């Protein structure tokens, strides 16, 4: 049930965000400082999510096979590999590292 | 719609509608290319939803109703990590806020009627905005937006279903290294933004360090939100440095999409 509430709240919130941009008169949120910050917030969030899911475990930090997988994925992303290839490389290298490392 | 005057008059083509047809074909081709290939990433979301122990229905409902990738991935990863509901939803909404800014830029360019606006809004995401903002005139902007949005929506949802069903059949995600898919998705979404300039790199680095440091002491879900503090921190440090060196108000890279859009908008809307 909790999950469905989260699904509903996120769906409603994300839709209203999309609609509000199309509906408010231009110029209201057009100040360069606001736009600049809004463009940078996803960068901070995505970096935090990447770091936490690579090194986080049960409320602490750890270094395991995921770090190797992500390093390989970072190399692929840096070489401009397509989205699914980056994800595929991370999965493959992580699985291989676990297989070899036991 | 009068679009003729917007079209480039290349060598007074003898057949009037020929260049228009060519432009139409090019927009449709590019839009379908983006829509279909990006939509396939729905596979990764289907797998992520399943790995987070969401039901196939819940995973598919997210793709149908939220339909903005980064927010969907953020929500399921927060739920999987056991974050409190408000923190999980808030993280997803912060990531979805950029779509409001796409709408602000595209509203005057698309000039949608009251009836079409609620439907178009649902399709207002990174890819549709990127396509529509780079079109030379209103007709191709509308066409590119619609074709990208509809093809991406269809592919994204079908692939979410396929990914969720496939992952459910596979079982424990960690065995196959599928637990590395989550962070790799965020990295792949982040990578193009890091090419935009030094400020983006600094914000990403500070954001990651803040979140990692906070995760040891704060409850799950909160460290992600705390990373937003990286934005004012990096901008404040940048301003202080600029004051010393007397540089311009913004980095040479500007803010990517928005800068291009501003330029394109000036050209054709006047």
TrEMBL record, chain A:
Q: What is the lineage of its organism?
A: Bacteria, Bacillati, Actinomycetota, Actinomycetes, Kitasatosporales
UniProt keywords, alphabetically: Membrane, Transmembrane, Transmembrane helix
Write down the species: Kitasatospora indigofera
* Keyword match Transmembrane: yes
What protein name applies here? Branched-chain amino acid transporter AzlD
| Residues that span the membrane, as ranges | 6-26, 38-56, 83-101
Entry keyword Membrane = yes
Q: Which domain of life is it from?
A: Bacteria
**InterPro entries listed in its UniProt record:** Brnchd-chn_aa_trnsp_AzlD
TrEMBL record, chain B:
Q: Report the superkingdom from the record.
A: Bacteria
User: Pfam families from the xrefs?
Assistant: AzlC
Tell me the Gene Ontology biological-process terms attached to this UniProt entry: L-valine transmembrane transport
**TM segment ranges:** 31-53, 73-95, 143-167, 173-191, 203-235
Q: Where is this region: Disordered?
A: 242-270
Alphabetized UniProt keyword annotations: Cell membrane, Membrane, Transmembrane, Transmembrane helix, Transport
Indicate how the chain sits in the lipid bilayer.
Multi-pass membrane protein
Which locations, inside or outside the cell, does it occupy?
A: Cell membrane
Any one cellular-component term (Gene Ontology): plasma membrane
Checking PANTHER family in the record gives:
INNER MEMBRANE PROTEIN YGAZ
Q: What family does this belong to?
A: Belongs to the AzlC family.
What this protein is called in its record is Branched-chain amino acid ABC transporter permease
Q: Which organism is it from?
A: Kitasatospora indigofera
């Amino acid at each position: 049930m909790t999950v469905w509430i989260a699904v509903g709240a996120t769906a409603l919130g994300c839709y209203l965000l999309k609609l509000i941009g199309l509906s408010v008169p231009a110029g209201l949120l057009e100040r360069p400082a606001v736009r600049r910050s809004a463009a940078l917030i996803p960068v901070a969030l995505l970096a935090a999510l990447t770091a936490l899911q690579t090194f986080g475990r049960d409320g602490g930090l750890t270094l395991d096979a995921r770090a190797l997988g992500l390093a390989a994925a970072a190399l692929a992303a840096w070489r401009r590999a397509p989205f699914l290839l980056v994800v595929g490389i991370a999965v493959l290298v992580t699985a291989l590292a676990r297989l070899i490392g036991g | 719609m009068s679009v003729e005057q917007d079209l480039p008059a290349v060598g007074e083509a003898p057949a009037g509608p020929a260049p228009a047809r060519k432009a139409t074909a090019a927009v449709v081709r590019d839009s379908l290319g983006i829509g279909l290939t990006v939509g396939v990433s729905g596979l990764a979301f289907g797998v992520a939803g399943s790995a987070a122990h969401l039901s196939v229905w819940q995973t598919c409902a997210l793709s149908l109703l939220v339909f903005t990738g980064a927010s969907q991935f953020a929500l399921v990863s927060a739920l999987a990590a056991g974050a409190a509901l408000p923190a999980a939803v808030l993280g997803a909404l912060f990531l979805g806020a950029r779509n409001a800014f796409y709408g602000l830029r595209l509203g005057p360019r698309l000039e949608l009627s009251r009836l079409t606006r609620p439907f178009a809004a649902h399709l207002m995401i990174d890819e549709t905005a990127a396509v529509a903002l780079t079109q030379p005139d209103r007709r191709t902007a509308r066409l590119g937006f619609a074709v990208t949005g509809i093809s991406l929506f269809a592919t994204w949802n079908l692939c979410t279903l396929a990914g969720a069903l496939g992952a459910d059949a596979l079982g424990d995600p960690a065995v196959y290294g599928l637990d590395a898919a989550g962070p790799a998705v965020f990295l792949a979404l982040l990578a193009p933004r890091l090419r935009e300039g030094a400020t983006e790199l600094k914000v990403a680095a500070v954001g990651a360090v803040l979140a990692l440091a906070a995760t040891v002491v704060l409850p799950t879900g909160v460290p992600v939100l705390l990373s937003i503090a990286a934005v004012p921190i990096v901008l404040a440090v940048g301003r202080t440095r600029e004051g010393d060196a007397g540089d311009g108000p913004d980095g040479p890279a500007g803010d990517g999409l928005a800068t291009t859009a501003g330029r394109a908008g000036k050209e054709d809307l006047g």
